[in-house]
Amino acid sequence: MEHEHKGINPNVLYDKVVLGMEKDLGSKLWGKVPQSIENIPELITRKTNKTSKETLNKLVDVLRDFHQTNNVYSEKVEANLLKIKNGSVFVGHQPVLLGGPGFIANKIAALSAITDELAKHNIHFAPIFMIGDYDGLQKELGRTYYPNPISGNATILDAERAIDVPDDTVIHSVNVPDEKWFLEILAQLESSFNGFKKQVKVSDKRKILEERFSHIASFLRLTHSYSKTFPDFFVKVWGYLTNKLNDYGIVFLPTSLPTIRKLYGSALFKMAQNHEIYVHEFNETYNWISSLGYHPTLPKRDLKYLPFFYECPCTQFRVPLEINGNNGHGKCKNCGHTIDIPIDELDSFMNHIEKIGPRVDSSQVAFQDLLNIQVRISGPGEIAYYTIVSPAVRAAGFETPVFFKYKRVFYNTPWNEKLGKLLAQRKQPSLHTSELFKLVRKRIDAIKNDDLDNFRDAEISMDRFINATFQNLGKYRTKLDAQKYLSWMFGQFAPQKFGQEVSWVWIDMALQTGLNDYIPTYRRLYHKYSIPGLKQFINTMT
Length: 542
What we know:
The protein is α/β, with parallel strands linked by helices. The chain has 20 helices and 14 strands. Among the domains are: 143-169 and 177-226 and 408-538, no CATH class; 266-358, no CATH class. A hairpin with a 6-residue loop joins strand 3 and strand 4. It has helices spanning 11-18, 23-29, 53-69, 75-81, 103-120, 179-197, 203-225, 230-244, 258-273, 275-291, 346-350, 363-371, 380-395, 414-425, 434-448, 452-473, 480-488, 500-503, 507-513, 518-523, and strands spanning 88-93, 126-131, 143-147, 154-158, 251-254, 305-311, 318-324, 327-331, 338-342, 356-358, 373-378, 402-405, 408-411, 535-538. Strands 5-2-1-11-12 form a five-stranded parallel sheet. A five-stranded antiparallel sheet has the order 9-8-7-6-10, with helices on one face. The chain has a two-stranded antiparallel ribbon with strand order 3-4.
């Protein structure tokens, strides 16, 4: 099959463009690629939203009500809602159990930092976090992970047994499991935490960690008790941390509200009308990227491909559609229901819009014109998708934003530091050496001295140091302590995993920072000179 082609992940191409190694490829693939956060303002093309005033007023009214209903509204949210008329900085993620992994906080921090930097240049955009609740329930959305204190395996916090719906049921229709399940999960989390806590010998530090765990547990209990669905739980977690504990004024976008879908439906219709142009450019880019030795992470599209799903009225199961004459046609694998929706006339298409959700390559398009998205913050996965999606989207008549790849973050814990120093004493690879803290200090000094060259050198050197340590430590993976360090410190509890804030539920780092300083810890990572992508280390210690 086409998508089994072997090669390098194309998000590596983005890194080469950022570091000046493949400059010409940036404009051909993603469009405009910034060299730093400071570079973004000069790449902005439009500072006013072309969407009609009437449509924007409807959108703002819906979003205001959503934030007030979920108790994540503030004066700053209101101020940012009114900035939608200018444009937006955009990021998103699917709702995940317990709020999900730490990189969601990382995305929010980058969102806040970039929006603030633009404001310094008199560019006032709304910071938008898209809740991808149109996606289907998968294991990775109903499961999250915490480090295991006795091995390199993960402690799995899972809702699979407690959710009685088939995989690929749309996530906005899935209820959170009941209190009995929640208390079992909390007990499981506490048991793992207690295993780590025993390694903290200083009583004052141990007491601080206990207090923070108690605070987090109380917060989650309250959040769970006021949540009905997965998206409810998700937005209450992140909305409270961003807009209540920290006054960031993040605007959360619930993509599956019927009123929201009516506002983005015309964009999906336009994409369906231009599907042949889209598919042709998609496949041309696919072939070209493959010829360079890269492995596109989406399969080729055929001419029957439609860029959205239909939610089966019987089961809320997501049904992929393909073109059949003037209709989008599909059949529900769960109940056998046959679906046909007209795609040749806008009004007829819009009669079905409340049941239509975007796919991975149309989620950007759905909101591009509505929100005048000028900057999109993405991780390696999205950057790889958009390597082939962006040229196709532009060919189909849509604009694309400036793509900024957020940083992968590694952070300290008492048990990671203890184990890391032990490995270093054995002459085994470890981040916990004098080199790590020299690089941390070099970056801090560069900020104090406003030294761009030393700042960039410190970021690039840290990225290389983390990568080299990880690669070298892999030679010792048969040793138990090396397995633990690869898991706890690098998040590699399975071969495809890499990164603490990618692997571990956000609670892991929040225990080191406390709830109040959790997202600000990420936020301080982003500086005007920050290079997109690369890996960084935060010295979080209790």
